[in-house]
Structures are given as structure tokens and as C-alpha cells.
Amino acid sequence: MGAETTATPVSRTPPPTTAVHTAADAARYRAAGWWGTETVGDHVARARAANPGGAAFVTATTRMSWAQYDDAATALAQALAAAGFERGQHLAVLLPDGPTAHVAYLAAERAGLVVIGVAARSGVGEIVHLLRLAEADALLTHPQTRGVELAALLAQLRAEGLPALRSVVVPDLADPAAGGVAAARIDGAPARIAPAPAPGAPVAALTPDRRLHPDETFLLNSTSGTTGLPKCVVHSQQPWLLAGRLAITNGGLTAQDTILCAVPTPYGFGLWSGHVAPALLGVPTVLLERFDVELMLELIERERVTMLAAVTTQLAMVLQAAADGGRDLSSLRVVFTGGEAVPPQRAAAFERLAGAKVLQFYGANETGIVSGTTVADDDRARLRTAGRPAPGVELRLGGDGVTPAAVRGPGLSGGYHADPAANAELLDGDGWMRTGDLLELDADGCLNVVGRASDIVIRGGKNISAPAVEAEVATHPLVAVAAVVAMPDPVFGERVCVYAALERGTPAHALTLDDLVAHLSARGMTREWMPERLVVLDALPLSAGGKVAKTELREDIRRRLAAGQRPETGRAPGGGAA
């Protein structure tokens, strides 16, 4: 990976780095070629110059060219600047995973704004929490989100600690009939956009120094962590530009590829595969605004997709849906997957079905990409390990089977936003970041994830905090004590299983799974967090220290699954009556 140069250099002074990456670190990363001086916007402009009419984004019904993408982002950036948004303010983006979300991210970069990435499937409760935690100045969204009218959502957000929150309402910018950026409304008024300038001239209300530098914070996105509600992780563009280049190298990608990204935009995987790598290569990205496995198979065939980015659960669904035949997947060359380990048998089955190599990256929202497999790896390394460490990555392995590994290098995030206590747990001094996982290196230098120290459920590649779900379940009036454990599942990897003891004198049948889900839905809990199995016990087993013995519960749910017991009630671990 060589150092980058810009086609039209712009004088931009790198800002002070975070405590995670010192100025000396940044200089060393740039000298090694791991960090560059260009932003995603620079690469989009280059792709536009090379192929203005070529497709940047494709959906089931629309196409957006590189010229349209570039123009829409500049127009939206100009409208935001003209509306008085100041450089460095925080813009929450709540949009489906279509072209408009990418336009919004690029517009924010050019207007010097920090994006708060909010997944389209987030519940209202999670949206309120994230925007308050990330200190949002404005919300950019469609007029209606998941059936919730914008006015109602804004009213709740303003009542929940964001009284000055501004609104930016945009149509589907890839739909020619929607009116484009000119149809956007900022604080209820039409967006102000100056006429397009002559080629190469600065856009009104925008100057080159307003744009974000690649070292600066450009995104705050959410992570579940291991305790409490989601935290906000601080990202510059550098780790994700590095990830995009690593994907190109590991996957042997070229300017002739077509990418399909099935992963939500706000998360790291969706970011490098749908927003960054395509801009680096100047190639089309096929997007699904809402995941649908049959539609995905149709688009792979129709668009002759060569690279697929999908979490493990989605890959399992593709394998199930495609096993019956009827779809041509022969265009696929490489599949990137992650979020959790892919069972080797499932990956091998997909390779046989599609003739594509299945590659994995290991890492996290906080750490960036730590390791990855490549198309040149043999079957053992590719299907049964997490690959070799990424360029510049240093690892400190616990080695005792108990201590989580730590990592440092050019791919790290900037830690958590406005959360010193969480950063004290995450960071271990001298630039080391704790992974929460137990790791080993084999004789070939490949990384293996042998355990998880954190208390999370990984459902379809998304980390779900067990303590956070427990806290929500405990709000049900019939629940006295609740514990959440991961229930093994052949498709999603894990599902959320709740063990609950009810208030004294309450019969076990008084609380059903449907009752609990209805209660949590009314509280605005995110859909992916919802319990999918409920076991009601007289009392939860306790450890010697007085805490709930989750190891016993994990063993118990495996026994119940093996025995085919009904989910709502059963016998308590150890043989006690339920």
C-alpha cells in the first residue's frame, strides 16, 4: 500500500489527534502508507472525473451515477452550510440503506459536519438515547421513518433532552421524480442551493478548508458494548480507508468489480464495503434498503455482482435460498463476511454453490480490522481461522485463557464519545485497546478467536448487550429478576434467550413471550434486541458470589434445545421445579 497523492492538492492542516493516536503515531502511519491525505470525497470526485455516467449506486428500482452522487452531495453540503450549520456540529443521519444515506455522509464531510450514524431499524428508544449521547445538533431523515412521522419523533427527541434539535428532511435522492436536494427542507423551509458553479470553481458557502481532514472525527456510530445502552464510537476516516484498501488487496478487487453491500451503512462493515472501497475503486455498489434474501439473489444475478458483503446470518440465508437452484451466482468471485465466525462447513458449502471464495475479517467497531483472510489462503486458513494480522497491527495476547487480548495500530477508533469511564475500560495505556476476546496465533501466524470475555449475544453479526436487555426486561411489572444468555441458533448464530423469575406469588404461566415482547415494543426497544425465547423459573441459579450463574443458564438452554422442550417454562437448572 503506497502513500497517496491528490490530483488537485488542497492545503489542509491536520488537526490534533486523539489520545488513541498521537501526532507521532499519525506521522509514522503516513510514512508507512497506512494513512493518506485524501478523503472519501476526494476519491468520489476522481471516480466522477473518470466515469461520470457510470453507476455509483444501484437499487432494485433506481441507479445513481458518479456525477449525480457527487453533485447531490455538494448541493446538500452547500444547503447545510447556507442554513447556518457550523463546522464540527453533529448531524444524525437516520435513513434506509440506500444511495441517499451515502449522499448524506459525503455531504456532511464536505460541509465539515460529524455524522451520527443511526441504523434504520433502530427503535425509538435507541434513537433517543443515541442522539442525546452523541449531542446531536440536527436530525437528517425522510418525512417518515418506520411508520413514525417526523413531527412525532422530533417532539419526543426535543422532550428527551434535545430542545434545540434542528431538522433536515430529504427525499429519496436517487429517485428522479423526488425532486432531488431542491426538495429538501431544513427546519421546515426549502433548502437554499446556489446555481452550479463553473467546473473547478468553489461552491457558494463552501470552501476547501471547511471540508473534514481524514484525521478528523467524521462519524459517531453506535456499539452495544457489554453493559448498559449503546455507546458512541469516534471514527476518523483513516481506519476505514485503510480497511477499504485492505479489502481490495485481500479480495484481489479491481475496477471491473461490482459490489453488493447488504450490511447497514452506520456500522464498520457496511462503511468500508459500501461507502469506502467502491469510491477507492470507482465501481458500482448494489444496495438493499431493506434486507430481502430473494431480492438479493435477484440483484446478484441481474447486476452480475462479483463481490458480496454480508454478515454471517445473511450468508446462511443466501445458502438456504439458493440451494434449490434457479439463481445464477456464477458472477461472484469473493464474499466478505463477518460479525461472528462463519462455521467452516457453511462457508465451504457456499463456496461449492457459488464458486466464490469466502473471506473473513476479525475486528470490532472500536478496533477496526485486526486480521483477515485472503483469496490466496489455503482452505484451512481461509475457512477455519480469522486470518493474519492486518498491516501495522500489534497484538498483545492474554495467553492465560482468561485475559482478553489487546491491540494497537492504525485501524483503531478514537474510543467512546464523552464517556471517560468506558474509555478507561477500553484503553490500556500506551495506545493499547482491549478487544474483550481471547485470541491465539497458530504456527502459521493466523489468528484464532477462542473465546469471548464480554457478556453479549451476537445475533446475525450484531452485538446485543445482555445487561441492557436485562434492564429492559426488568421493567415488566411481573418480572422480579431476569438474565439474558445467548441461545445457539443454526441461522443467526445466537438468539436472545431470557430467563426470568417472577414476583412472589405470580404463577409461571402469567408471563408469556408475546406479553414480554409487547411490553418491550411499547418501550421502543430495538427489534434485534427482542427476546426470542423465555424460560420462567421459581428462582435463578446463583454463583458463590451471589451473582446469577449464567454458565448454568447457558448449559440449561442447550439442554432444552436438545430435548425439544417448550420455551416458556421448564425445570430449573439442577433439577428444581420450574
TrEMBL record:
<comment type="similarity">
    <text>Belongs to the ATP-dependent AMP-binding enzyme family.</text>
</comment>
<dbReference type="InterPro" id="IPR025110">
    <property type="entry name" value="AMP-bd_C"/>
</dbReference>
<dbReference type="InterPro" id="IPR042099">
    <property type="entry name" value="ANL_N_sf"/>
</dbReference>
<dbReference type="InterPro" id="IPR045851">
    <property type="entry name" value="AMP-bd_C_sf"/>
</dbReference>
<dbReference type="Pfam" id="PF00501">
    <property type="entry name" value="AMP-binding"/>
</dbReference>
<protein>
    <submittedName>
        <fullName>Class I adenylate-forming enzyme family protein</fullName>
    </submittedName>
</protein>
<keyword id="KW-0436">Ligase</keyword>
<dbReference type="InterPro" id="IPR000873">
    <property type="entry name" value="AMP-dep_synth/lig_dom"/>
</dbReference>
<dbReference type="Pfam" id="PF13193">
    <property type="entry name" value="AMP-binding_C"/>
</dbReference>
<feature type="domain" description="AMP-binding enzyme C-terminal">
    <location>
        <begin position="469"/>
        <end position="547"/>
    </location>
</feature>
<feature type="domain" description="AMP-dependent synthetase/ligase">
    <location>
        <begin position="47"/>
        <end position="401"/>
    </location>
</feature>
